[in-house]
Amino acid sequence: xADLEITHPQxxxxxxxxxxxEDPILREMGEYGRAQGFPIIGAQAGRMLYFxxxxxxxxxxxxxxxxxxxxxMWFALAVGLGGKVVMxxxxxxxxxxxxxxxxxxxxxxRVEFNVGDALTSAGRYxxxxxxxxxxxxxxxxxxxxxxxREKLRVGGILIFDNMLWYGRILNQDDAATRAILxxxxxxxxxxxxxxxxxxxxxGLSVSLRIK
Length: 211
Ligand SMILES: C[S@@+](CC[C@H](N)C(=O)[O-])C[C@H]1O[C@@H](n2cnc3c(N)ncnc32)[C@H](O)[C@@H]1O
What we know:
With 211 residues, this protein is an alpha/beta fold. It has a single domain, classed as Rossmann fold. The chain is built from eight helices and seven strands, in the order H-H-H-E-H-E-H-E-H-E-H-E-H-E-E. The protein has a seven-stranded mixed sheet with strand order 3-2-1-4-5-7-6, sandwiched between helices. It is globular and about 45 Å long. The structure holds S-adenosylmethionine. S-adenosylmethionine is lined by residues 39-41, 65-67, 70-71, 88-91, 94, 117-118, 135-137, 140.
């Protein structure tokens, strides 16, 4: 079966028309991502990240899998003065590009860059974090959930991207899909998180740490 669009294309297009004018650097980053075919979360999900971070007045955010900084830019705007976003990314070239965008946005003081394996980088921080966002390689999601459990405060929010995996969760049996299904089951049945799956873009899981 071919990959599915999670939101009906016409509804997706309508949602795009509702978006307010973006911050100019975010717009430039979005255009770069689209031109390169780089899988960023995009403005619709970006607004959700911003919304959730602002709603809990997050000041410390841990991001696993930052790419060239698009989603981290939404968080950097949300945490405000004195807030911090810990970014983790495996590729130096992506981090270099991210650093350039944050410098131009005047927000370098709100981000920390870590190059290398995201789960190892996260181990260097004691936390607790107010919000953890995970967007690394999908087969690593179960391990990322373990890291989030160690680092996230009670009352904090955990978000995973790609939890509907372009519909592959319906019929595919590979390491990435199995890991997403395992993570979803665990989040929905554990008693330390309350989770809802939001079919926005490729599906976000949003979990509140309740214990
Ligand atoms: C989907 S992209 C991230 C996009 C970003 N969250 C955004 O929306 O702007 C995933 C990124 O995670 C990085 N990545 C994947 N697995 C990783 C790992 N285990 N450690 C560090 N980086 C990883 C990849 O190099 C890639 O840049």
